[in-house]
Each structure stands twice: as C-alpha cells, then as structure tokens.
Automatic annotation (TrEMBL):
It comes from Methylophaga aminisulfidivorans. This is Type II secretion system protein. Keywords: Membrane, Transmembrane, Transmembrane helix. It comes from the Bacteria. The lineage of its organism: Bacteria, Pseudomonadati, Pseudomonadota, Gammaproteobacteria, Thiotrichales. InterPro entries: N_methyl_site, Pilin-like.
Length: 347
C-alpha cells in the first residue's frame, strides 16, 4: 500500500528561507515609511504648537500662553482658547509634549518631546531651525512675533504661501497698499449720501448697496440720472428707479402729448409757466377760393346789382368772389411721430 508523504523538515526550512528573502525588502520599505511618517507627524505637531504660541502672543500683547507659569500649561490653554485645535498632548512616540518659556534667553517659547532613539531626535533636529537634540529629546524654540517682520513664517510677503482662513484685523487699518486684486469686496460700513465723512478717499456703501466715497468731507456717489429727470424708453414698463409720467407719484401726465421746451423768458411762447398744459391750436390764417363769374347783360338799364354768396355785385364788373371751403383732415393737428414710454427718475 502506497502512503502520501508530507514536506520534510528540510523542505519546510527551505520554503521559509525563500519567503523571508522575498518579503525582506517589503518589510524594510514599510519600516522606512513608518519612520518617515513618524518624523513628518512630529515635525508638523512641533510646528503647530510653536506657531500657535506665536499667534497667541501676537493677539495677547506679546505675552506667551501661560507665561506666568513659565508656559507649562500652554498646550491645554491654547487648545481651550481655540488656537491649537484638537492636537493631543501625546506624541506619536507615546511621550508627552512639554512647553516652557524664558525671558532670560531672548524671550523664547520652547517645545520639547522625547523620541524612542537618539537617532530619531537628530533627524528631527536636522529639519528644524532653532532646535537642539539632546539624547532622545529634541527641543524646538521660537521668538516673539514682534521679532519676525510681518509674521514671515505665517504669511510670507513674497506671495509664496496662500492664506487658509479669514484675516481679522479687529478694526485696524491696512496701509501703504499699491493694488488690491480680488473678485469681490464686501463693504460693511453703511452711510448716507451727503452725510459728513472724516477722510477723503474712504469708501463705504449706502443702504441700497451703492458705493459711496468720501470727497471734500461728504459721502458722494456716482451721479447717474438726477431725480426728476424725464427720459424715454423702448420698453413696456419703466426700469427700476423710474416711474411712468402718468400724473401719479408726483409726475406730470405726458401720455399722448408732445413736449415743448419751456420758453423761460425767450418770448416765443410767452407767459408760460413750467409744467403747464397747453391746448392744441392752429395759427390764425385764411384761405381764398376764386370763382369765375359770367358777364351778365340786362340790355337797357344794365348795371343792375345782384347778390351771389351774400355779396352784392353788378353784372359785368366783378369776375370772382371768395367763399369758405369744405372741412378736411382729422381730429387733431400733428406731425409724423412715434409712440414711446416716458418715465421720470425717482429718489
């Protein structure tokens, strides 16, 4: 009877050896990646703590967080005040971050963490300026914001780094700006046109959203169409800010009327006041219609008078007379015209 045989011990050892040879590069690569990830996370957390401390000092009269206690509880204080987010006190090496500050060494803020090996501390120190490795520990420090022009580490002046949030100036000014490039600007200051202002060049808006500027001590805006202006539109309705001149809303009724410019003392249309109505009229004139009359012969005793069209005449002496013509035309006198909508500008 034939029996099935399994792997021998030597065969199993050979398989294990080959497997270990094959996976060793993978394990090595993952180990390197894990170490690099730990370095990256630690560098980020050290930088976040130090940067948050500078932000805190910049807004708190250049005083470090928990400065009265040598900044020993700076992390928890900044986290509670919203400067640090949810960063944990514990590092990825399962050790705690510690903070301190000292005015005797240039008024600097210190962040320290203990790694697992001295080599790890050296690697971290090589990536951070103003840092020092001491055994497994690394100590990183930053100065007060006042010693860093324009907080260069937070907002580089060369434009190489974009902001990631809002810039709150707490009602302070931005000065010496050459040009602003932006899609939109929100003006929060609401003023009234014609009211006093403090400095020429200031910009604000009125309650309707129109932009106003400070000029000669008063808020002024684009003049546009003045109130009371009458204009014509090829539209069925007046645009916003305009009303139809139909006699309502303080307008005069221009519907169906021709416009005559106010004489204002010239003497062509005398004794007219502005905005007064004038009935239609035809200038005084006359028409003459001539009718030829035949010669009349009465024989003896001629030259008798007779009447034609209400006028007495004598045969043979008057050849034509004037008579009224028949009516012609329509209900009014007018030139060629086009009907269009008249509107008046409102306040």
């Amino acid at each position: 009877m034939k029996l099935n045989k399994g792997f021998t011990l030597i065969e199993l050892l050979a398989v294990m050896l080959i497997t270990s040879i094959l996976i060793s590069p993978y394990i090595y690569q993952k180990t390197v990646e894990l170490k690099e990830e730990r370095v990256r996370i630690t560098l980020s957390e050290l930088s976040d703590i130090a940067t948050s401390a500078q932000n805190y000092a910049a807004e708190q009269s250049l005083k470090w967080p928990d400065e009265d206690n040598q900044c020993s509880s700076a992390i928890s204080l900044m986290r509670n005040d919203g400067y640090l987010g949810s960063l944990s006190d514990t590092s990825i090496y399962d050790t705690s971050y510690s903070t301190s500050c000292s005015k005797s060494t240039g008024n600097r803020f210190y962040v320290e963490v203990v790694t697992q090996t001295a080599a790890q501390a050296e690697i971290l120190a090589s990536h951070l300026s103003s840092s020092e490795a001491n055994g497994k520990s690394i100590n990183f420090s930053v100065p007060l914001p006042s010693s860093i022009p324009a907080l260069e580490h937070l907002l580089p002046r060369d434009g190489s780094r974009a902001m990631t949030g809002d810039l709150d100036l707490d009602e302070n000014n931005i000065e010496n700006v050459n040009q602003l490039s932006t899609e939109t600007v929100l003006l929060n200051s609401v003023v009234s046109k014609g009211s006093p202002c403090s400095q020429n060049g200031l910009i604000a808006r009125d309650s309707g959203g129109l932009v106003l500027s400070c000029s000669n001590g008063l808020w002024t805006g684009a003049e546009g169409s003045p109130e009371g202006m009458i204009s014509y539109f090829n539209l069925p309705l007046c645009p916003d800010g305009w009303v139809e001149t139909n006699g309502s809303n303080g307008t005069i009724d221009l519907r169906g009327e021709f416009i005559r410019v106010w004489d204002n003392g010239r003497g062509v249309d005398q004794d007219r006041e502005r905005n007064t109505f004038q009935e239609y009229q035809i200038q005084s004139h006359s028409h003459r219609q001539s009718t030829e009359l035949p010669d009349w012969d009465y024989g003896e005793g001629g030259n008798r008078p007779y009447t034609i069209g209400g006028r007495r005449t004598h045969g043979g002496f008057q050849r034509s007379i004037a008579q009224p013509t028949e009516n012609t035309g329509g209900a009014e006198t007018r030139p060629r015209n086009i009907a269009i909508l008249a509107c008046e500008k409102q306040p």
